[in-house]
Amino acid sequence: MATVSSQFPRERTIRWDDPRALAEAGRAMSGRDFLDAVLRGALPSPPISHLVGMTFERIDDGRIEMVLTPQESHYNPIGAVHGGIIATVLDSVMGCAVHSKLPLGRAYTTLEIKVNYLRGVNRETGPMSAVGWVVHLGRQTAMAEGSLSDAGGKLFAQASTTCLIFDVPDHSVIAKG
């Protein structure tokens, strides 16, 4: 039986900004304006970005690109990035793609997500491109798809989602300050 050495334990420190202030700022903008502000650094990245290690790369109407840098702290017991990390990144790019199409006063939440895992991811895979795009945007629901690929374009996971679209209460009060 192999033994696990704790001779050199790893450590990771995570720092983030107040998520309530970020959410409040987001309620005062269209989805695209909010995401653009995060991309250019006018607003801080959401805490999940710091926890998972994903960053916005590009924002267009209905299409979002993020970069995930796989880390040992993402590993499951068999030495690969946990599927939950991959699902989180894909949920983020697909949800943000939907968010980029929403006007002031409208928001979304994920109703369901389906992920197909095609290959294992580890630290040696290197930075990965996560892309999400809107397939359908209706008044109450939206559908989006997403993919996770390595720098060479090899597909590692693909996903789809359905999102609920709803009105944000009291957005006019927040927008007016």
Mind sketching the topology for me?
Elements: H1 19-27, H2 31-39, H3 47-52, E1 54-60, E2 63-68, H4 83-99, E3 106-117, E4 128-137, E5 141-149, E6 155-167, H5 171-176
Antiparallel strand pairs: 1-2, 2-4, 3-6, 4-5, 5-6
Explain how this protein is built.
This protein has about 180 residues and is α+β, with helices and mostly antiparallel strands. The chain has a single domain (about 20-175), classed as Thiol Ester Dehydrase, Chain A (Roll). Helix content is about 25%, strand content about 30%. The protein has a 6-stranded antiparallel sheet. It starts with 18 loop residues before the first helix and ends with a helix. Residues about 175 have low confidence and may be disordered.
Per CATH, the class reads Alpha Beta
Number of domains: 1
Largest sheet: 6 strands, antiparallel
Q: How many beta strands in the DSSP annotation? A: 6
Distance between the termini: 63 Å
Task: Summarize the entry for a quick read.
This protein has 177 residues and is α+β, with helices and mostly antiparallel strands. It has helices spanning 19-27, 31-39, 47-52, 83-99, 171-176, and strands spanning 54-60, 63-68, 106-117, 128-137, 141-149, 155-167.
